[in-house]
Write the structure tokens for this entry.
Amino acid sequence: MHFDPRGPSKYVQFADFLRQQIESGELAPGALLPSESALMQRYEVSRPMARKAVAILRNEGLVTTEQGVGTKVRELPAERQPLFLEADAEAVARMPSEHERVELELDYGVPVIEVHIDGEIHLHSADEVVLRAAAPARATKTATRRARKA
Amino acid sequence: MHFDPRGPSKYVQFADFLRQQIESGELAPGALLPSESALMQRYEVSRPMARKAVAILRNEGLVTTEQGVGTKVRELPAERQPLFLEADAEAVARMPSEHERVELELDYGVPVIEVHIDGEIHLHSADEVVLRAAAPARATKTATRRARKA
DNA sequence: CCGGATTTGTACGTATGTATT
DNA sequence: GAATACATACGTACAAATCCG
């Protein structure tokens, strides 16, 4: 690993390097990244730089880290739950506040989807659902499903 | 500002304190936050703690910071562009990679919406659009709009 | 259950660089 | 050019959570 002094900052380059290993599958979903000390030694970076690079990937939702354990490549649910958007509903995506993130038990780097319908607002974890247009109303109307709590 | 030693970490508490000032309107959209040195002096926090607290708000999409200028409360577009979801389309939300973020000129803490349709993928800045179900196909089919490049 | 090793988290300090005003 | 403001980069020390023998 060699850092280009003319390129972007060191931790961005380092994050790019690690991201590439994830996207290439070299670091598979569920796999543990090298520890901070390992990264420091192997690539000759300081601890702050190793941590900043990992933080970037965390904010991108690519990895999660647990104290005392390490940083793992995040595995997204194979099957996303379809979230049907009714004709009179609207949906926006945004990042949760820290409070919401803890409340909904979300990893860092996971947006929320805010569905507005009938004056109510429903929050969903963005990486568990896929939005689809609801079929136009017929005899019976299928109820929209709430995101399940873990 | 007093920090509870039994509570969450100092920078989380400090971020909560600043977030409250934003949500209460005390710090209005467009307003400049106190500079790092000002925060350090007024609230007796170290520079790393002031920076970490602001970083949290940045990752939540609440503020943006420019080097040499300062950190401002982000003002979201009053009018979001409606993004109509066709019956055969799907949409998911996620955080952009650093490369995508720069490419799309997004602030930190702004998710992207990925619309899958006809085997193509279209990316949209999550804070410029609101998703709606497209009206069922009639005589003429309204074309989906692409996100405009700035 | 306990102790030790490992791993990440928190908190502070310093110095220098870069962009803006 | 000077002052201000954020960014980068390195260092230290200790705390907290987890894991393992």
Remarks:
- Residues 144-150 of chain A have pLDDT under 50 and may be disordered.
- DSSP finds four helices and seven strands in chain A.
